Amino acid sequence: MMQETEKKSFLPLGSVVILTGSVKKLFIVSRGSIVENKFYDYGALLYPEGMIDTNIAYFNHDDILKVVHEGYSDTDDQLILEILNDAYMRARTGEQADPATVRIGNVAMAASVSVTPPDTATAPIVDDPFASVRDLGDDDE
Q: 3-state SS string over the chain?
């Protein structure tokens, strides 16, 4: 059994795995999902089909038979792993997280993304946090 101080390991997004009892590959697209009050390590789509409707397979690390390909990981991913571990420990203990904060180690930080979508009819227009990424494309305008 995992001790409270131990960290859970997660594969990077983009990893391709085969689950025990299956021959079909899955492409990991989410980590640390809570579905019907149960914590799942991963959410994945069929590989190479991708998203078909809204079907996502949820499973835990112990369900993985083989890692076919490990996805990309960098320092940003390591930061998210701290948040995932905090969420996992909260799910194990039943502790409710404040949706306005996230924890990195022992430090609580204000969440930079809205937890619930704003009411678009009354919400003020805010800057797009991903605009700088999308704007890296063609600068011919």
A: CCCCCCCCCCCCCCCEEEECCCCCEEEEEEEEEEECCEEEEEEEEEECCECCCCCCEEECHHHEEEEEECCCCCHHHHHHHHHHHHHHHHHHHCCCCCCCEEEECCEEEECCCCCCCCCCCCCCCCCCCCHHHHCCCCCCC
